[in-house]
Design a protein that fits this description.
Elements lengths: L4 E2 L2 H7 L1 H9 L6 E3 L6 E3 L5 E7 L4 E7 L6 E4 L2 H15 L17 E2 L13 E9 L6 E13 L2 E10 L15 H7 L3 E2 L15 E5 L2 E8 L5 E12 L2 H10 L1 E6 L11 H13 L4 E6 L4
Parallel strand pairs: 1-4, 4-6, 10-15
Antiparallel strand pairs: 2-3, 4-5, 7-12, 8-9, 9-10, 11-16, 12-13, 13-14, 15-16
Helix pairs in contact: 1-2
Length: 296
Amino acid sequence: MPRMLEVSDEVRTEIGDDEADRLLAGAHAPDAYDCTSCRAPGDSLREPTSTVLFIGDETAVLAFAHARCVPSQVVPVDEDQLLGAVRSISQAQGGVGAPASAPAHAVSGAHAAPGMPDDVWSAPPVRAPQPQAPADPGTQPAVLGVTCGLVLCGDTPYAALVVEPTGPIARPGSGSAEDEFLSLLTDHGFQVVQSVDRAPVRPLTGWSVLMAMGQLHAILQPSATGGSAAWWQAHQPLQVTEAWRAAVARRSEVIMYAVPAGTIGRQPREDLLRMALDRAAGQGVLAAGMLPLAGT
């Protein structure tokens, strides 16, 4: 029986016309699935459903999502991360095979792409380090700390991320020890904000937040060769709270906040973290951008 599937041109190019047509006719596509974005149940027979193809170096995973949550698209993912997700999905769901253009494990209802604080969070923040480029030659690489949670902008709760490096981030090739982390981000469209209470107005083109199996995997940025590439990637997928996922599902977007090294640190309580963010905004060292969920 035909499914209400949406197969984008880029997904069709990767999997081929024959496989795309078979999917649309009902082959290799599940009737019911867990949305790769919001993790809520979906029904491809009754509601528009997006096909999302995750591609590693040698592996491809075809997943399904509510069309209202994310569009049909191709998302590049680290190979080891993709294989780990496939193993988790297979153990949890007993994955269903579906051909892809690369040597692939294809699973039904697996992935999708796509957190920050309010005065009282629903759960403690989650932080994950990620190696980045050295601040200058001969030094140890700086590490990005990422905190996930909810933040109130006015009366509206938003899923958000707070990113803070452990040391200065210099411009590539500059050889300088000067911290240019915020200016690098503002070059890409992030804005220095004066108040945490006001959410960024427009999503940043080409940036997105990648989630898979309800976990945070990466922050993606535009690639010079087209598509997107990982700007930050978790060593291990990060668990997020139900409240965070619910906020993402409502808006399909995430606020990313960024501060220079040493601005916030590891606060022992969520209310103290919010106070630190407000203080950073008052000092003019808090940048923010709205990132769509699974945007490419």
